Amino acid sequence: MAGPIDPKLVPKRTLASGEKIPCIGMGTFGSDRYPPAEISAAVGGAIRAGYRLFDCAAVYGNEDRIGEVFDDAFNSGVVKREELFINSKVWNDMHGRGNVLLALAKTLRDLRLDYLDSYMVHWPFPNCHTPGCAGDARNPDSVPFSADRFMGAWKQMERIVDMGLARYIGMSNMTIPKLEAVLPLCRIQPAMIEMEMHPGFQQPDLYKYCVDRKILVIGFSPVGSPNRPDRDKADGDIAATEIPELVAIAKAHGLHPAIVCLKWAVQRGQIPIPFSVHEKNYLANLRCVTEDPLTDAEMAAIARADKNCRLIKGQVFLWEGAKGWEDLWD
User: Fold this and answer.
1) Catalytic residue flag (residue 60)
2) What angle do CA 13, 168, 186 make, to 5 degrees?
């Protein structure tokens, strides 16, 4: 098996502040299929492999185990804290007054960190679901998006920056109408916005909206999340890795279609955060951004192949009276 990748060889993306961060990271959501010990072991392997950006979240239920891995990596000299860019997210049930800081305190304790590089609002409403719930589960307390309610959480996020507990703050699972409602109200603008993004769901309008405002895009489910929770699977879903144009490009390069998804993401400009517990896969994911780029013609072919197929629909967050998951996305 090929050895680790020199982090210096990994291309960088530039935040609005001018700071450069890696063009690819590792996600840590196990899709309700992998236990915390297995995920944290993969994080440790990824650090040794050359990954320097990690995407975490309180709701993933594994930050305490990942924190042990970070702590060991720092203490053993494998990597310095300042060499990693670590993101986490506040879960929906902690948007209330004073709760965001409490949520951050737990995340920092679990991850064994003094600060985060980035902290995001995971979803733009306080709607929750129980861990491992079915796709038809509903919470009677769920409510539609409210800019005023969201800003109550965001002002707490801004205070976290003021306190030096997070260097940047960001948003996730947003839409253009939601951003139009809240960005003018933000004292501190989001440095990053995380969204579902893969060749089958390219979100070109939202992507351009963010780029035009110097907001860096983080793409989750970058290969179409074939192992996503069963609640997020539906009839009619299109697998990104089975799109004929992408398959043909993968064959021409002698690569797995998932690797082409990552190359496309990086060359387009977003930061993909693929997840795998398998060393050969997370090594290949990182190595692919350092070699054998796609041609302009191949990039254009993938752009034309967009299926506008959202896979993570979020229907478990629907409120009483909502017509369907589309209501979550304006």
Assistant:
1) yes
2) 115
